[in-house]
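Data availability (excerpt). The following record was deposited with the supplementary files.
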Amino acid sequence: MADTQQRPGAEGSPAPMGPADIAGLLAGRIGQRRPTAAGVPQPAVPSAVSPDAPAAAAPAAGDGGVEAVPSLAGLPGALPVEWEVIEHLQSLVSTKLSAEDPDKLLEEADRRALARRLVRNAVADWATAYAQGNTPLTAEQETAVGTAVFDSMYRGGRLQSLLDQDGVEDVMVDGLRAHVEYHDRPRQTIEKVADSHEELITWVNRMARLSGHGERALTQATPMVGFRMPDGSRVTASLLTTRPSVVIRRHRIRQHGIAELVQWGSINPMLERFLTACVHAKMNILVVGDMGAGKTSLLRALGREIPPSERLVTLESDRELYLDEPGPKPGPVTYAFEARQSNGETRGGGAAGEVTISDMFATALRYNATRVIVGEVRSTEIVPMLQAMSAGGSGSMCTLHVRRPHGIISRLVQLCTEAGMQTEAAHHLIASSIDLVVYLTYLDETAIGGQKHRFVSHIYEVHDVVGEGGRPVTTELFAPQGGEIRAVYKNMPSFIDELELTGLMRRQWLTDNPFGAWMGPLATVGRR
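Predicted structure:
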């Protein structure tokens, strides 16, 4: 996990290495050979790992070796060399890349293509030197080494092999150990994903620079940092835990639309038509649910239903929606704003350099957008969001973390009062701004042999009036019933005329329900 910005040869950094130096390193560090039955010397490290071979294991700390925990080096596709060799090759290639394009005038794609060529040449020289006195590596192993070198420069470095696994949703690093969460199988724990805590911290800061967030660095002065990796994965890291910790949230799919949500079982065809019509009718939509329920995925899919004739502004603390990128079909003109963290200094009683979602609202509204989407409302930005919805920003959307469906209004009021509003005023603002609340349920059954389920279970209409106790009046449009834990039609929305005007929805579909039922029962292990 070497720092790609480090200049070899500078004071306190390693000097550039040529083939002879690398051969010496291999001979001294990983070229320790053991005799075979035929007396032919072989590398101490396995020369190949079959994709079907079981992972090498190391005893988990404190368990007396009863339960084995695989190490990163023992996973299928493991490198035939130690990571230190990858670091030195990466340093060598970085030096040559800087020499060929010192002012970084090449386009990013061209610069990466040049880097790949330099990596191939460096690995070829290294492999030739390594073969002098060791068993030559196969073409596949040379390719694996070259991929690791490129990954250390432009991707996730030593952790990339974990991120590339099928079905990965989260990688949680605690010191030198990582816990990997999958969407379709139980968690896996991996030992030794870094050689030291300092190496892990260096990896975090290098990833922040690669992402264009040079102001975000994990130091004692700024012991918490968040950013996105070049592939869009969201990273949160901290030094305030017992050991340095990193959580990587993997975005497996970025270009999906609402039709894919039907295929995944998050919504059914009836909800697809209903929600699409709500977007076209410019309903203000709040997407809520617990952590990991798929709120961002649904919001992204709804955003892709906005007509291309409109103008959209997205506001996010860390970019996750990607609605400004080309999607499966033409979309609106989109300006994607992203918040900026402080550089760790304070100035004038505030954090120097920090730009929050609340700070961006005034500028975003001057872009004359027809809609505003906030990736996730967490704090005081709730007030400008609701004000934008109620003051003409029809069709705006955002997400909010709420544990239970019945706690939605209370959570909104809590955030409004934390922003300085009175409870009564908060109730009136909520009633006048939000039209629809979509609640996603997250059911994780991987621990009992099942899989993770994410689906819409409730949809509420919020009326522009307050009722008893001054709270906004809501109607349950879709909710679980009849043994079905997913959303089933219950009540006709008051804005059904507006939905029918879009040409995408008919009220008879709700009452007659010819194709709105879920496609068979939910494949759960344990019925609720």
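Summary of structural features: Residues 258-342+353-512 form a domain with the Rossmann fold fold (CATH 3.40.50.300).
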